[in-house]
Amino acid sequence: MNSLTLAERVAVTDKVDYLILKYLIEKREKFEYVPQSVLKENLSLTEREAQISLLRLIKNGAVTKKRIRGEDSFSITFTGLDIVATKSLYSKKVIKSLGITIGEGKESRVMFGYDHEDNTLAIKYHRIGRKSFKKRISNFPSKNWVSMTLENAKREYEALQCVKNNMGYVPTPITFTTNAVAMEYFEGTPLYRAELSDPEKVLDAILGTMRIAYVYCKGLTHGDLSQFNVLVSKDEDVRVIDWPQATRDEDVLIGDVTRILSFFEKEYSLERDLEEVLDYVKGYS
């Protein structure tokens, strides 16, 4: 089943498969790998039901198997998380179908989604692996990779929601579930590839969004702001994207402001005083 799309993988996942995946997520802090006997007992499955479902989930790439203390045990994969999230988006009627992948990195995958009015959405699936964020693991209340992934999705959704509710230039968030955030699809070019006719307007929009995040969202800052996570439309409207590392940290705020000012100074000879900009972002001026 390696050649199947995510939508096809969701389609071949039945009710028992889904129950198993949900249980693996629920017990993520207790077990990295859940023994088959525990799955059978807690989900009231027969031996045959468990075997058929687990074999299908393995072929579907949704779980991995490891022999532990003489018993087959199972752990959910990123694909398994994606399946659970997508099924939830279907059941909540957020989307009626999935499209192609439009972006993929080490820690997320973004796909087109289509709602029941045929509007195009962006569905972002978070994927924080066991080695990701090694240097920032203290930011997470849990060191379990599944929990870190779920927390990342929640953090991004909450940041987007607060900033958008206060009129910041971010994609409109719709909902989050499991490791997925559904949001407005914004057609734009990454800032580092854009050729701006009015760079001052674009910089003001970015800094205004940072100010909203800090002043109205209790000291929030993006956490990884740069020319790589700002989109600019043909009309030079702006969306600041990728907020999973949003945090409340003064040093991180300074880094965010410094990077974006450095880009505009280098590319457009647009100079701003760092201290004055920080005062503006913090609402002091």
From TrEMBL:
UniProt cross-references to PROSITE patterns, sorted A to Z: PROTEIN_KINASE_DOM
Segment forming the signal sequence: none
EC id: 2.7.11.1
GO biological process: maturation of SSU-rRNA
ATP-binding found in the keyword field: yes
Keyword Ribosomal protein part of the UniProt annotation: no
Matches recorded under SMART domains: RIO (SM00090)
Enzymatic reactions: L-threonyl-[protein] + ATP = O-phospho-L-threonyl-[protein] + ADP + H(+); L-seryl-[protein] + ATP = O-phospho-L-seryl-[protein] + ADP + H(+)
Gene3D superfamilies assigned: Phosphorylase Kinase, domain 1, Transferase(Phosphotransferase) domain 1, Winged helix-like DNA-binding domain superfamily/Winged helix DNA-binding domain
UniProt xrefs under InterPro entries: Kinase-like_dom_sf, Prot_kinase_dom, RIO_dom, RIO_kinase, WH-like_DNA-bd_sf, WH_DNA-bd_sf
Family from the record: Belongs to the protein kinase superfamily. RIO-type Ser/Thr kinase family.
Entry-linked PANTHER family: SER/THR-PROTEIN KINASE RIO2 (PTHR45852), SERINE_THREONINE-PROTEIN KINASE RIO2 (PTHR45852:SF1)
Protein name from the UniProt record: non-specific serine/threonine protein kinase
Gene source species: Metallosphaera prunae
